Amino acid sequence: MSVFQFELCELPPEAAALRGEVRAFLEAEIAGAAWDPQGDFCSHFSEDFSKRVGANGWIGLTWPTQYGGHQRSMLERYVVTEEMLVAGAPVTAHWIADRQSGPLLLRFGSEAQRQRYLPGITRGETYFAIGMSEPDAGSDLASVRTRADKVAGGWKLNGRKVWTTYAHRCHYAITLARSAPATAGLPNARHDGLTQFILDLHAPGLTINPIINLPGQHEFNEMVLDDVFIADEDVVGTPGGGWAQVTSELAFERSGPERFLSSFRVLSTLVDAARGSTDARLLGTIGRFTAHLATLRQMSLSVAAMLSRGAMPNLEAALIKDLGNACEREIPEAARLLVSALPQPNLLLDALIEEAVLYAPSWTLRGGTREILRGIIARGLGLR
Ligand SMILES: Cc1cc2nc3c(=O)[nH]c(=O)nc-3n(C[C@H](O)[C@H](O)[C@H](O)COP(=O)(O)OP(=O)(O)OC[C@H]3O[C@@H](n4cnc5c(N)ncnc54)[C@H](O)[C@@H]3O)c2cc1C
Question: Are 122 and 205 within one domain?
């Protein structure tokens, strides 16, 4: 099993101090009824909240100060993320930019792109979406059909993207397109010729159509690109080298606590509601999930430590997402079956379970399905 590197990781003392600050901020927000806590990190888009978080210096926490960042550690960032999720804070607006678009631009973007986009992200004012998936290219991203054709000064993009979370309220989407045919005959031919672009979500030729999700919310969209012009300066990295860049985003996307805390509020409310109970099934189930979450947290912290050393632990991230999604999906179902064992009815718990049941099917899809993650794990074990 040594293919998986999970070293035990202690949070540094400065992380504890930061946790206290973030917690106090969130408690004050909740006490002032600034927002209603939500279970899912993708379900509550609030520009005002993101600006307040930015003003506190908690977006782009690890980035260099010259781009508005704060040069703090990934472990400190972990603590901010964890506190926000546990509180059910409305983090959606800045989430993607903070988690992956900003780090992508830091790693592969040009100096001009960093200066142009990163400060607005850290202030909580500039929001990014992800333009990867297409109607026939979700799991198999290399088969994207959105085409980028070279024209004077830039590229013309044509195609269709789906699932683009909050494209209707974000400013930009890092969009993957085929800019050259796959090179025939080479082992990774399908991965060649893909390019990432910074797509302005108000660009002429772009239409954003709503797709309503199971809970009835407008969270994601279809984007139709009809001769959308993107200037050369908005190509991320090297034209044709997009595959390596996309895959490097995935360790950021897959290993964070949002991959196992989506139903945390269901569990914590179940714990409150179970106080005074001696029901062995109820208490045993709570103990089991608590043990799972404590273990997942250690694994996820360990990946955060690896990311801060510049490593790309894609395999470990896949493992965390698969186990984490399994756990977060199981919690509402288990809680639903235990409601009758509670000492008293609990309306908050009922509402949280109802919300979680509607969101849960998406947890194992977004960021890579379980089958895809298990394929990556199998490859890591040398089985494929
Ligand atoms: C809530 C939510 C938000 C999302 N947000 C975004 C976003 O902002 N931007 C974006 O670009 N995308 C986004 N996605 C898309 C997401 O990444 C895709 O849904 C996911 O990658 C799966 O692709 P697909 O839906 O095309 O399914 P498919 O790839 O068609 O898969 C269908 C089924 O077949 C299985 N399957 C596919 N290939 C294999 C294989 N090789 N081996 C075994 N089984 C396989 C899959 O596991 C799945 O069960 C979002 C999805 C959700 C649910």
Answer: no
Measure 364 CA to ligand 1 centroid, in angstroms: 9
Residue from 136, 196, 369, 373 to probe ligand 1 pocket by mutation (most atoms less than 8 Å from CB): 369
Cα(140) to ligand 1 centroid in Å equals 8
* Residue 181, domain extent: 130-242
Q: Are residues 352 and 260 in the same domain?
A: yes
- Cα R_g (the chain), whole angstroms: 21
Q: 193 CB less than 6 Å from ligand 1? A: no
Decide which of 105, 126, 147 is a domain's last residue: 126
Is 235 in the same domain as 300?
no
Let me know if residue 7 belongs to a domain. no
Rounded Cα gap, residues 135 and 149, in angstroms? 20
Q: Which two tokens stand for residue 173?
A: 């989407």
Q: How far is the CA of 366 from the centre of ligand 1 (A)?
A: 6
**For residue 333, what are its two tokens?**
């179902």
**Atom 16, ligand 1: residue with shortest CA distance:** 366
Q: Is residue 2 one of the residues assigned to a domain?
A: no
CB neighbours of residue 119 within 10 Å = 18
Tens-digit pLDDT profile for the chain (384 aa)? 578 889 888 899 999 999 999 999 999 999 999 999 987 888 899 999 999 999 999 999 999 999 999 999 999 999 999 999 999 999 999 999 999 999 999 999 999 999 999 999 999 999 999 999 999 899 999 999 999 999 999 999 999 999 999 999 999 999 999 999 877 666 677 889 999 999 999 999 999 999 999 999 999 999 999 999 999 999 999 999 999 898 877 777 888 999 999 999 999 999 999 999 999 999 999 999 999 999 999 999 999 898 888 888 889 999 999 999 999 999 999 999 999 999 999 999 999 999 999 999 999 999 999 999 999 999 999 998
CB 315 within 8 A of CB 377: yes
The enclosing domain of 259 has a CATH number of: 1.20.140.10
Measure Cα distances from 352 to 41, 266, 335 in Å.
Answer: 14, 6, 10
Which ligand 1 atom lies nearest to the CA of residue 369?
47
Decide: 164 in ligand 1 pocket, CB within 6 A. Answer: yes
84 alpha carbon – ligand 1 mean position (Å): 26
Q: Residue 378 Cα, ligand 1 centroid: separation in angstroms?
A: 19
304 and 193 co-located in one domain: no
Number of domains in the chain: 3
Same domain? 223 vs 308: no
Query: What stretch of H or E contains 147?
Result: strand 147-151
pTM: 0.95
